[in-house]
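Quick one: structure tokens for this chain, please?
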Amino acid sequence: MSKTFTYIYLFLTCYGVQAQVQYKSLYTLEQAIEKCDSDKLQNSYVAMANGIVQKYTPRGKLAFEYSNNTLGEIGVLNATDPFNITLFYPDYLSVIFLDRTLNETQRIGLLDAYIFEAQTIGVSTENQIWVYDSYDFRLKKINQQATITYRSDDLSLLLQKSIHPTQIQEYENKVYVNTSESGILVFDSFANYLTRLDFKEVEYFQVIQNQLLFLEDDSLHSYHLQSKLTSPVALPLEVKKIKQFQIQKNRLYLHTDAGLQVYSFE
């Protein structure tokens, strides 16, 4: 039987005002997961070390599966568009797109765009991707034909240091790039550098509803992009060693050592 938990859930309010809601454990996928994500339809996705990607229904039932053990480890699993799932394989600099049933629809090779070193990507619209090119220190946007449509200036000159991005997210015409060296860098949709958020130990983040939620030292925090206020977000007491998290509508997805734990809230 599911247990109901009561916690403080900060991001629901406009300016970080605490709001008390009830959390209910819906299901847990108890397996060794490397990456996970969720979509706006409340489906969940997990990737395993053996190259298998699985899609689960909102009730936690296995729906579809994709397998590819020829390209190495999956570095990014992104389900921003539930009809166009994106996988990135950094060992081979390959991006694969899957349809809603996890059938492969397209591949993009970053080598075709003359990008020879990249650790992560972010998803944009119309099957386009964002990637930080570690060879020439620029953030680049690439279309379906592996053509670079926008690129930033040399960030090593701007920041006076090298960076190693771990996550890229596009949200409402801005691009957020997480680095341990310089914090979270913010760009516009044309790859122009805008500003820097001074959070340098972020393990994972999500931008949603004017909030930047970020994971740091196994704790979740909320930074309001307008008020500039930072507040802690309480999590279920039994949740330990969080690797990733996702918020979708009234659901909280937590990737931990135990697998994928999914909660609803009211």
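The two ends are 18 Å apart (CA to CA).
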